[in-house]
Amino acid sequence: MRKTTKLALAYIALAGAVGGAAYAENLDSANVRERTMMRLDKAMKDNDGKITFDQFSDVMDARLKKLVADNGGKLTVAQLADALEKARFERMARRIIARYDSKGDGTLTSDDIIGREKKLFAMLDKNNDGKIEKGELPNDGRDDRQWDGEGNEGGVQ
């Protein structure tokens, strides 16, 4: 097979793989392509520079295939949407736990939350007087509105 034909087939396959991989990874397309190419490169190296369709298929996103299999061989929009939502919220939960978990045990406790709040409070209390004043709050740079101390935004006084 000519090199241009191989490249064309690889890009066609990659385009299909990107769609399947993107749903689960929720990554930007460049990152998905990179990860897919890394998996394909590894499969090629493991198989003397050649892979069959079955080997290629094994490299692609098994999670989508598992979802189809787990749902009797057919996947509806609602079932896929439920799986996507669950995956998204699980990723969010992992990030929150990682951000707050002070012991590194993968759990979130009231002490973890309070500890993080104390760190954030200390960062905002620029003059270390135990109080946060309006002038100590960050200005996000969008406009001249600032927090009024009551939880509301208002004009600069």
Automatic annotation (TrEMBL):
Annotated stretches, region: Disordered: 129-157
Bias type Basic and acidic residues, positions: 129-148
Molecular function GO terms recorded: calcium ion binding
Pfam family, one: EF-hand_5
Signal peptide: 1-24
Annotated EF-hand domain residues: 45-66
Keyword Signal recorded: yes
Entry keyword Oxidoreductase: no
Gene3D superfamilies: EF-hand (1.10.238.10)
Source organism, top-level taxon: Bacteria
Key words of the record: Signal
Protein name: EF-hand domain-containing protein
Native source organism of the sequence: Mesorhizobium australicum (strain HAMBI 3006 / LMG 24608 / WSM2073)
